[in-house]
Amino acid sequence: MNKYFHLEELGTNIKTEFVAGLTTFLAMAYILFVNPSILSETGMDQGAVFAATAIAAAVGTLFMGIIAKYPVVLAPGMGLNAFFAYTVVIGYGIPWETALAGVLASGIIFIFLTLSGLREKIINSIPANLKLAVGAGIGLYIAFIGLVNGGIVVNNDATLVGLGDITSPNVLLTVFGLVVAVILLAKGIKAGIFYGMIISVIVGMIFGLIPVPKGISDIVSGVPSLAPTFGQAIIHFGDIFTLEMLVVILTFLFVDFFDTAGTLVAVATQAGLVKDNKLPRAGKALFADAAATTTGAVFGTSTTTSYIESTAGVGVGGRSGLTAVFAACFFLLALFFSPLLGIVTAEVTAPALIIVGVMMASSLKDIEWDQFEIAVPAFLTILAMPLSYSIATGIAIGFIFYPITMIVKGKAKEIHPIMYGLFVVFILYFIFLK
């Protein structure tokens, strides 16, 4: 083990890697409850999604640890799960089985692009400012969903949205959970989101807002059946060949691209693994991410991607793929705790969505706002996502306006041919969108 993972060479040991794996797991364990909560809105079986989430995270993380040897942990991505549920299924009216087939298709395309080397060309064709705008827009979108799920923001016929009843016990529980998680994170506690959820559950039980477990069976049980979701992506793969699903698949693909590339660079840099400004074994890491998405789709969950919370494990000394292996083991162990889904309510998970949104919105600072031809498409991308309740719509609007503003500015030669192709695709998307 020491030889395979180069522990001595990296200045680490098995004990340190174990602690790092546990730390990363705790920092992102919230996804085990948030993901089923979001995807169950589509009619998917919550228990099956819980199991699929844990398995996809474990399999993807094992790939990353054993093959790529990076201390990076994977799980179904925040933002993409919301896009899957609220835009694709609920918004477009596409069956969740077909949406899963779209995730599977994006994973297969990701594998092909990674193995062929085309992935780098595609990523490089998209301007850095638009990538930053997509990340920030998704952050605002996720936060908005969290505010709605927690009852803090509600429908208002006069102003479209308005402030909810903050005297309501359930809304107060959301606010309490948000305050607790913010305090913990501000104090430097990496697993602040997860601990905040636990404290919210306890307080909710005290005030009768959340049912109290009556026995050990309400906490630990057998692994939930995957039958309701397993293989549906394969069965319905023939339903993805429409323009609408093409845009959906492209969105899955783009966001996974950005998430993976950004996370790998951030984690590898913090761990001191970047050499000569290059990521060693980058191809293997990208393959692990793509394989995880494909596996997750087959089991029954939205796109699986690398998590920035992996930096929590690196922060306590994790340097090798063994960190990821230990984290994967914890996700497998979590399979036996599905009964907790009954006590982790929307009010408990809402603060996690809001805080993740805050973290993703940090990319706003790096956008070149002083260049109008860049500011316009970037701003419209960011604004359209929460207001249209669709990540795809935000990306489409931004990718349409970018060539327009750049051409008018006399910078047509700076636009990559792929961007012109996407311009046409997204124009057709709006023309034929029902």
From TrEMBL:
Family: Belongs to the nucleobase:cation symporter-2 (NCS2) (TC 2.A.40) family. Azg-like subfamily.
Residues that span the membrane, as ranges: 18-35, 47-66, 73-94, 100-118, 130-154, 166-186, 193-213, 233-255, 322-342, 348-364, 376-403, 415-433
InterPro entries in UniProt: Azg-like, Azg-like_bact_archaea, NCS2
Superkingdom per UniProt: Bacteria
Record key words, sorted: Cell membrane, Membrane, Transmembrane, Transmembrane helix, Transport
Organism: Compostibacillus humi
Protein name in the entry: Guanine permease
Keyword Translocase: no
Keyword NAD: no
Pfam families noted in UniProt: Xan_ur_permease
Protein topology in the membrane: Multi-pass membrane protein
A single GO molecular function term of this UniProt record: purine nucleobase transmembrane transporter activity
One CC-aspect GO term: plasma membrane
